[in-house]
Specification:
This protein has 273 residues and is of the alpha/beta class. The protein folds into 2 domains: 189 residues, 3-Layer(aba) Sandwich (Rossmann fold); 69 residues, N-terminal domain of TfIIb (Single Sheet). It contains 9 helices and 11 strands. A 7-stranded mixed β-sheet has the order 3-2-1-4-5-11-10, sandwiched between helices. A 4-stranded antiparallel β-sheet has the order 6-7-8-9.
Length: 273
């Protein structure tokens, strides 16, 4: 039985493929979020959870202001996260391997949960992803916020709909050539990216450090595209109410930028999902 796409895509090669998504971009994101809502309720003493922390590019930046725990399913990326620490960062309380559908934490353990750089929508249609929202609500303290950094679904559809055959990008990065073909599913409910990684001649030894053999890699990413109203409705079922939003890391209005940065608050009377 083949592995789910997200187990392959977030392998040792991932930091190379997304090297342009760097700490400068992470810093822009984390400068904006506290302007939308507190990362953790003032005076609570609670830390935050970086859900889907990857190789940790946000972790040490978050730790400069609040205690943080990172959680990810990818063993190779967690190895990278444990060796990555920005100057002046505060304590990282833990870096944990786990599945966001079953967060290994007690109820109301965190004052904030951060789902950054589209760490959402991996499991099919909206209802299939509801378990993630329920888990976020469960581990979030009353008065805390869930920060969701997600695709602007409307913009993705506008950009890709005129290209049913898909848009192709090819790049040479380190020992590999990456070919990415991005398109919409027929129902426009999923953005699909076919990724082919080819090892360059003479670079086999370097590529082996990325846990690739001579055959390279091929996989298909599938991230669901949810209308904003449906996201809001599903969050409300879990006791989370959207209280703020922006359209870019530069603070553009929601709908005017390239992303959705959404902030959902757990009500004071909510004990859990």
């Amino acid at each position: 039985m083949s592995r789910p796409w997200f187990e392959v895509a977030f392998g040792a090669h991932y930091p190379l493929l997304y090297a342009h998504r760097n700490e400068t971009e992470a810093a822009r994101c984390l400068e904006l979020l506290p302007q939308l809502a507190p990362l953790t309720p003032p005076g609570s003493g609670l830390g935050v959870l970086d859900l889907g922390c990857g190789d940790g590019r946000h972790l040490s930046l978050i730790a400069k202001s609040v205690p943080v725990v990172g959680l990810d399913l990818s063993a190779p990326l967690l190895v990278a996260a444990r060796t990555r620490q920005a100057p002046g960062a505060g304590p990282i309380r833990g870096i944990v391997r786990g599945d966001m559908r079953a967060i290994p934490a007690r109820d109301r353990a965190f004052g904030g949960v951060l789902s950054l750089f589209t760490t959402f929508g991996y499991f099919g249609k909206l209802e299939a992803n509801s378990v993630v929202i329920k888990e976020v609500a469960r581990v979030l303290a009353s008065g805390g916020h869930w920060f969701l950094d997600y695709l602007d679904s409307d913009r993705v559809i506008r950009d890709l709909a005129p290209h049913p055959e898909g848009l192709i990008r090819t790049r040479v990065l380190g020992p590999c050539e990456f070919r990415e073909k991005r398109r919409l599913a027929e129902d426009r409910g999923t953005v699909i990216k076919d990724v082919t990684v080819t090892i360059r001649a003479g670079c086999e030894a370097e590529a082996s450090t990325l846990e690739m053999d001579g055959e390279g890699l091929h996989y298909r990413e599938e991230v669901a595209l949810f209308p904003l109203a449906e996201l809001d409705a599903l969050a409300q079922k879990a006791g989370l109410q959207r209280v703020a939003g922006a359209g870019s890391y530069d603070g553009k209005a929601l709908g005017d930028g390239d992303r959705w940065l959404l902030v959902f608050r757990k009500g004071r009377g909510e004990a859990g999902p």
